Amino acid sequence: MGQQLKQPFLERRLFTERVIIAVIIVMIAFLLLLSRYFYLQVISHQDYQIQADQNRIKYSRINPTRGLIYDRNGVLLADNITAYRLNIIQEKTRNLEQNLIDIQSTIQFSAEEIADIKEKLKFNPVFKPLTIKEKLTESEVAMFAVKRHRMAGFEIEPYLIRKYIYPNELSHLIGYVGKISPKEFKAQDVNVYSANDYFGKTGLEKYHENDLHGYPGQLVTEINAQGKQLSQKVKKPPVNGNNLELTIDIALQQSSYQAFGEETGSAITVDIATGEVLAMVSKPGYDTNDFINGISHLKFKALAESADKPLFDRSLKGGYEPGSTIKPYIALAGLYHDIIDKDDTMFSSGVYQIPNQERKYHDWKQGGHGKVDVIDSLTESVNVFFYDLAYRLGIDKIHDFLKPFKFGQLTGIDTAGEKQGILPSREWKEKNRDMIWFPGETVITGIGQGYFVLTPVQMAQALSILASKGRVAAIHLIKNDITVSQLPMNISDSDWNTVHQGMTNVINAPNGTARAIKSDQYLIAGKSGTSQVYGKSEEDIYKKVEELPKHLRNHALFIAFAPADDPQIAVVVVAEHGASGTKAAAPIAKKIIDAYMSQADE
Amino acid sequence: MNKRLFTYMPDPILLFLIGLLLAYGLVVLYSAGGMVLVERQAVRIALGLIGLYLITQIRPERFEQFTPLIFVGSIILLVAVLLIGVKVKGAQRWLDLGITIQPSELCKITLPMMVAWIFRHASLPPSWKHIFAALIVIGLCTGLIYKQPDLGTSILIATSGLFVIYFAGISWKLIGGATLLGLLSTPVIWHFMHEYQKQRVLMFLNPEADPLNYGWNIIQSKIAIGSGGFWGKGWTQGTQTQLDFLPEHSTDFILSVMSEEFGFFGVLMLFTLYLSIILRCLFIAQQAKNTYNRLLCGALTLIFFVYIIINAGMISGVLPVVGVPLPLVSYGGTSVLTLLASFGIITAVHSHKKLIQQ
């Protein structure tokens, strides 16, 4: 092979040169490689650390327990009870198809539900439980327990669900929760709410949602590459929702509800000293428990289409004319503005006419009441006296006087859904009717008719101010939330006493319109009223009440406080289509006051 | 006889460095695969070290003498693989002769031996005739391995032969020309590549495109390396490794485990050890007494280096995924035995040279 002469020295030098070049290349290669590791491990370390954590650590929520709701005496009104739901954890199932058929003998599923479950399973991570049925019955849970060993991957999970203990009596007041809607969810902080949460839909549940809900805790689960759970620890415990303690006395609430019998309407009882609402019912109520996990279409349709409108909250949203229940306030305005004096009298002939005008305004009593002063006029509810007084006061003074009583204003009661109503004024009419105010409208304002739209809760606020002689204790539903102020007008004690006397006479004088509810144990002061229901035809107007269909009969109103000499509670009753305040509403008020007084005696 | 055996001690410096590396590897292997793997690997290492010691006793002239025979033997084995080999995952690489062997691993030593043998008496730089003969030998061996098919190994084997030609002193013009030719023929090679090989190259170019399949390994490996930081997460504390996010963490991806648990510092230590071993081996090669010994030691050293670069580059996402273990660290018998055998040849060259000088 080697014909050429070998030159060992030169060959060694050549080899040494090649070794040196090789060493240089090796060094450069190691440096380049090292710089790559430096880039990954030092420069980009943070990014990769995050990715490594994301790989193995999964955070999940621990749901907070929703706050409970109690009445003023600590009686539980809204509870959380354990319910059970059925979940599937796909990776644990062995024979899913067959199990889904077998489960039918214990827990019913429609064909669509099964198809829906299969669809959802496709997109659900195999290790994540998928809820396939909520609110299992006790027998379903028991029957499943027998079969569970054959149903790998099917698991029953307990969870908390709202339970309303007095659903009908408190349906509007407490309201209800339901599954949070996508729209509601969007408006909430995603760190606090999950798409599976319950959310207050109406009433106090809605108004105090954020307070009742609480803050979720965090559970940290370490998983491996196969998604298997390795360890679990509570990183942050949940902060449960705050409990609510209401001003409501559930016994009085129940009495108020029952006092209506078959009638529909609203009744509110306020503690005069504090502004605490002791009872507030809207009749009829409905079973709020039906709404928690979605009410069935049929049930909802029946409620929504019922002529009695059970879903409608009359106390906060119902708009009524005050009728004659406005008269004590008009009388007070007259006395305050010195339009009348306690002893001034007038002759009631049964008809009133504005000077130089033709139109006649009638009294409810044909032939009138004869010679009457302000107390007589309240006692017998003399329309003509108040037509004249209102006309002489003028609409501006009436409006300005009534406004601080919260008529036609939001009372600011601490719950959701209050409506404002209308306190008529020159300004209001020009703005909303685009017409000037006519003097005739002032006249009927004096007996609580015309443009008035007042809610029962406004009437209750005004009445408690009237009963406490100008002390404004803001009406409210959550205990220990008392705010007190004074009316801006400085009304003299004798003026208050005059009006109180008139209202006491309504029940206690022999000629009082509501003498039928007189009590021999204590003095009740009050005033009845009739709220006109419109929509009657010409001929209907002349029919007797009994001949009218129920829905066209006027609403009956009664406002009362007791005891008259030392007022403790103010009661407002609206009996819808009750026709006459004294006949329909006063007895309901009496029952409520009796219930309160007998409780107080105990 | 006994006395003579002790006469040929392997180079203590090299032996010390290799020992450190092997120990370091076992520590990482414990974290990656537990005590069972460590025990099995320790047995192989012990066998390998005994082999190294025994090979050290052989005079290099004997290697030279038997080279053609050994080479023909390995070619026969390669042919046998193609005819009666065991098929695993679509590739026929193993021979079942009581124990399973992978003849292509043998070629990592026998091919450089053969090429060095061709140049043993040639005057250097080599003539065309010698280069041509060397290329035929390389082509034959590489072609048989490529047929298995095993592209990665065939390229590595070819490289080991080419390193011998490099050390023989082939002119830089020829090296440049060959490199250019190689680059130009890339499309042709691409055309002849198998689908899975193409996939690997494509995945290397864009691992994020297919995160749950081929690219998954590289992404998880980069996360493991990067999340290790400078000092690492601590021994057996690597979440990527311990929670199985990192694939094949005791074999091809063991450097990812080391990077995760011992950080950049651990990698720096490893590279320092490797570099020291390579420098010591190149020094031994340079000191060798004849062409055959020089060329063989140089080529065996550089192929060791190439393994490191390919593995470390692959797991950090700068080179395509080729199933190459990390030399002397990855779990696996064939690799550690072959490598310790080739170090045995290097220590043999060193020990016998000293004795003659005396």
UniProtKB/TrEMBL annotation, chain A:
Q: Which domain of life is it from?
A: Bacteria
Which protein, by its recorded name, is this? Peptidoglycan D,D-transpeptidase MrdA
Sorted alphabetically, which Gene3D superfamilies does this protein's record hold?
A: DD-peptidase/beta-lactamase superfamily (3.40.710.10), Penicillin-binding protein 2a (Domain 2) (3.90.1310.10), Penicillin-binding protein 2a, domain 3 (3.30.1390.30)
| Predominant subcellular localization, coarse grouping | membrane
* Active site (UniProt): 324
* Location in or out of the cell: Cell inner membrane; Cell membrane; Membrane
Entry-linked PANTHER family: PEPTIDOGLYCAN D,D-TRANSPEPTIDASE, PEPTIDOGLYCAN D,D-TRANSPEPTIDASE MRDA
Q: What is its EC number?
A: 3.4.16.4
Pathway assignment: Cell wall biogenesis; peptidoglycan biosynthesis
Q: What class of enzyme is it?
A: hydrolase
* MF term (GO), any: transferase activity
Ranges for domain Penicillin-binding protein transpeptidase come to 265-593
Residue ranges of domain Penicillin-binding protein dimerisation in the record:
62-232
Q: Tell me the name of the encoding gene.
A: mrdA
Alphabetical keyword list: Carboxypeptidase, Cell inner membrane, Cell membrane, Cell shape, Cell wall biogenesis/degradation, Hydrolase, Membrane, Peptidoglycan synthesis, Protease, Transferase, Transmembrane, Transmembrane helix
As for what it does, the entry says:
Catalyzes cross-linking of the peptidoglycan cell wall.
Family, according to the entry, reads as follows: Belongs to the transpeptidase family. MrdA subfamily.
Concerning InterPro entries, the annotation shows: Beta-lactam/transpept, Beta-lactam/transpept-like, PBP_dimer, PBP_dimer_sf, PCN-bd_Tpept, Penicillin-binding_protein_2
Q: How does it sit in the membrane?
A: Single-pass membrane protein
GO CC annotation? plasma membrane
GO biological process, any: proteolysis
Q: Which residues cross the membrane?
A: 20-39
Recorded catalytic activity of this chain's protein: Preferential cleavage: (Ac)2-L-Lys-D-Ala-|-D-Ala. Also transpeptidation of peptidyl-alanyl moieties that are N-acyl substituents of D-alanine
Automatic annotation (TrEMBL), chain B:
Can you state which reaction this protein catalyses? Answer: [GlcNAc-(1->4)-Mur2Ac(oyl-L-Ala-gamma-D-Glu-L-Lys-D-Ala-D-Ala)](n)-di-trans,octa-cis-undecaprenyl diphosphate + beta-D-GlcNAc-(1->4)-Mur2Ac(oyl-L-Ala-gamma-D-Glu-L-Lys-D-Ala-D-Ala)-di-trans,octa-cis-undecaprenyl diphosphate = [GlcNAc-(1->4)-Mur2Ac(oyl-L-Ala-gamma-D-Glu-L-Lys-D-Ala-D-Ala)](n+1)-di-trans,octa-cis-undecaprenyl diphosphate + di-trans,octa-cis-undecaprenyl diphosphate + H(+)
In its UniProt record, which GO terms are filed under biological process? cell division; cell wall organization; peptidoglycan biosynthetic process; regulation of cell shape
InterPro entries this protein is in?
A: Cell_cycle_FtsW-rel_CS (IPR018365), FtsW/RodA (IPR001182), RodA/MrdB (IPR011923)
Gene Ontology CC terms: cell division site; plasma membrane
Checking Pfam families in the record gives: FTSW_RODA_SPOVE (PF01098)
Q: Which UniProt keywords apply?
A: Cell inner membrane, Cell membrane, Cell shape, Cell wall biogenesis/degradation, Glycosyltransferase, Membrane, Peptidoglycan synthesis, Transferase, Transmembrane, Transmembrane helix
The catalytic activity of this protein is classed by the Enzyme Commission as 2.4.99.28
Membrane-crossing residues? Answer: 12-30, 42-60, 66-86, 128-146, 152-169, 174-193, 262-283, 295-322, 328-349
> Which gene codes for it?
mrdB
- Record's subcellular location: Cell inner membrane; Membrane
Record membrane topology: Multi-pass membrane protein
The role this protein plays is: Peptidoglycan polymerase that is essential for cell wall elongation.
Q: What class of enzyme is it?
A: transferase
Organism of origin is Marinicella litoralis
Give the family, as the similarity comment puts it. Belongs to the SEDS family. MrdB/RodA subfamily.
Q: In which pathway does it act?
A: Cell wall biogenesis; peptidoglycan biosynthesis
Q: What are this entry's molecular-function GO terms?
A: lipid-linked peptidoglycan transporter activity; peptidoglycan glycosyltransferase activity
What this protein is called in its record is Peptidoglycan glycosyltransferase MrdB
